[in-house]
Write a structure and sequence with these properties.
The complex is a heterodimer of chains A (119) and B (420).
Chain A: E1 2-9, H1 11-16, H2 19-39, E2 42-47, E3 56-60, E4 63-67, E5 77-85, H3 89-97, E6 104-109, H4 114-118
Antiparallel strand pairs in A: 1-5, 1-6, 2-5, 3-4
Chain B: H1 10-32, H2 35-56, H3 62-84, H4 88-93, H5 104-115, H6 122-133, H7 138-145, H8 149-166, H9 175-199, H10 210-224, H11 229-242, H12 245-248, H13 268-284, H14 289-302, H15 311-324, H16 328-342, H17 344-354, H18 358-361, H19 364-377, H20 380-393, H21 397-409
Helix pairs in contact in B: 1-2, 1-3, 1-5, 2-3, 5-6, 6-8, 6-9, 7-8, 9-10, 9-11, 10-11, 11-13, 11-14, 13-14, 14-15, 15-16, 16-17, 16-19, 17-19, 19-20, 20-21
The chains are: A alpha+beta (119), B mainly alpha (420).
């Protein structure tokens, strides 16, 4: 079963962390990534760039335009994600729990599209 | 290599290689002992054969060729490893002893037991079985399981490390462990089958059909252990389930439930084989969970139309299954049988009791069954709500579409020919 672990962050909370705590967050991510790769459960993980780099894509009058979008002021943003393949939701949650002390962690099962892809 | 040199299509070569793989691996592990390295060497020999045989012809003695190439490769791998570890002096001591070839049949069984070692996770057992016994490449396994090749490769190498660390050897487990290990083997084969069955509807090119692979491996196992009732039951269950595949998904990818399937599209030969096998096996006893599930599948498959289904017999079989191997899905399927025999209200009462099981409490199938029973009982509003609830809970898109369709149609009997 595939699960996505989404890490939501909030700039104010992040800025409130001490340098040592920020290093600790990085360490936790590296350790989790290593362990997931070693166990054969990791599919992909990425950290996302600062939300100020976000571009929103819209179609206006048939033309595609990219811009800063209508959501300039957002408190929470997606900071990164893991896509894992685990035996159970509980197992995915136990991985996610290792990140939980810092940030808002969301775990969602992934839809199974294989039957559709095969047709 | 002098040989018969008959050219052979790649597909035939693939098939031949996968049949030979466990025996070749068996010879190597018997000779050199280290399962992990031997498995790598056999993989490389299989790859070499897959490239050379279609072009240059199949050698006169295919297993001999593979053993020779794999042994050569093993020596190289072993030398590399020892060199890396600066243990050259030990290498001199290792003049490969000539093998005492053992019967290949034993090897397949021993291999299966090793790949389903209790120290491995189910995901690793599946990957390792597909590679070591099924003879699939890592890339094929990755495609079949829809994970990146790196993930599949890591799962396999991790599984080998775990086996090495556990101290397990290439030997049949002692008699007192055998039945537990056989249960693990049948479970892995069933897992492989289900992975393929839920996943695929068509025969997509370049994708190994996991259901076909599971059937092939279970057939092999059944040939080795013809008197094992549960292996026979598992094979019958697979045949009887897979027989419905042509009718299971409509041309638009929509799921067609058992009751609405066009039964003329079922694979009659597979049904006949499955029914004959399970009838023979049940007569011999003792009866286990796979045999009971196969018997239930046989009752369904033998009904010419859905309304001809012998539900009282199915209910009896579920009662037995519930006693032998209770589980959330058995409970739920039994509720459906209760409703078919004693009416939807009786079914709903049983469902309320089933909900006490936390594994079922919020399961999409529970909501779908409740919706169906409510619909039959005439409470269409509630049926709609529960179909919607079920649709939101499933992870399978065709199933979601089907449940939404049922929600929209609650209160109307399904029209003949829809969804095909």
């Amino acid at each position: 079963m595939k699960y996505v672990i989404l890490i939501h962050s909030n700039p104010a909370a992040w800025d409130a962390l001490t340098e040592a705590q920020k290093v600790e967050v990085g360490r936790r991510h590296l350790a989790l990534t290593d362990d997931l790769a070693a166990s054969g459960e990791l599919i992909v993980t990425e950290a996302l760039a600062d939300p100020s780099m976000t571009r929103h894509v819209m179609v206006r009058d048939g033309r595609t335009v990219a811009g800063d979008g209508p959501f300039a002021e957002v408190k929470e943003h997606l900071a990164g994600f893991y896509l894992v393949d685990c035996d159970s939701m509980d197992r995915a949650l136990s991985h996610a729990a290792r990140l939980a002390p810092y940030g808002e962690i969301e775990v969602r099962p992934v839809m199974d599209l294989r039957a559709v892809l095969d047709v | 290599m002098s040989s018969a040199h008959q050219t052979c299509e790649p597909a035939r070569v693939e098939e031949l290689l996968r049949t030979l793989a466990p025996a070749v691996l068996g010879v190597l592990v018997r000779r050199y002992g280290d399962f992990g390295t031997c498995e790598d060497a056999v993989q490389e020999a299989l790859l070499a054969a897959a490239v050379q045989w279609p072009a240059e012809g199949v050698p006169a003695n295919p297993p001999g060729w593979l053993v020779k190439v794999a042994a050569r490769r093993w020596t190289e791998l072993w030398r590399n490893e020892t060199a890396r570890r600066r243990r050259e002096e030990a290498a001199a001591l290792l003049a490969p002893p000539e093998p005492a070839p053992a019967p290949a049949s034993d090897d397949t069984l021993t291999l299966l037991m090793l790949c389903c070692h209790p120290s491995l996770t189910p995901a690793s057992q599946v990957a390792l079985t597909l590679r070591a016994v099924g003879g699939l490449s890592t890339a094929e396994i990755a495609r079949a399981l829809l994970v990146p090749p790196a993930t599949a490769a890591q799962r396999i190498s991790r599984a080998k490390q775990t086996i090495r660390a556990s101290g397990a050897t290439f030997r049949m487990p002692p008699p007192d462990e055998r039945s537990t290990r056989m249960a693990a083997v049948t479970e892995v084969l069933y897992l492989i089958f289900n992975e393929g069955y839920t996943a695929s509807s068509g025969s997509a090119l370049h994708r190994v059909e996991l259901t076909a692979e599971a059937v092939r491996l279970t057939r092999q196992l059944h040939a080795l252990l013809p008197r094992d009732g549960e292996v026979a039951g598992l094979l019958a269950l697979m045949l009887l389930t897979d027989a419905r595949r042509p009718a299971r998904v409509g041309p638009d990818g929509a799921l067609v439930p058992l009751a609405d399937q066009d039964r003329s599209r079922w694979d009659a030969a597979a049904v006949a084989e499955g029914v004959a096998l399970i009838s023979r096996t049940l007569a011999r006893g003792p009866v286990g969970p796979y045999q009971l599930q196969a018997a239930i599948a046989a009752v369904h498959d033998e009904a010419p139309r859905a309304e001809d289904t012998d539900w009282p017999q199915i209910l009896t079989l579920y009662d037995l299954l519930d006693a032998v191997a209770p589980g959330p899905m058995v409970t739920l399927n039994r509720v459906v049988a209760v409703a078919m025999v004693h009416g939807s209200l009786a079914g709903l009462r049983h469902l309320a009791a089933a909900e006490a099981d936390p594994a079922l409490a919020d399961h999409h199938r529970l909501h779908a069954v409740r919706a169906h029973l409510l619909d039959l009982a005439g409470d269409h509003e509630a049926a709609r709500a529960h179909y919607e609830l079920a649709a939101r809970r499933t992870l399978n898109l065709p199933e979601q579409r089907y449940l939404r369709l049922r929600a929209a149609r609650a209160g109307h009997p399904p029209e003949a020919g829809t969804g095909r």
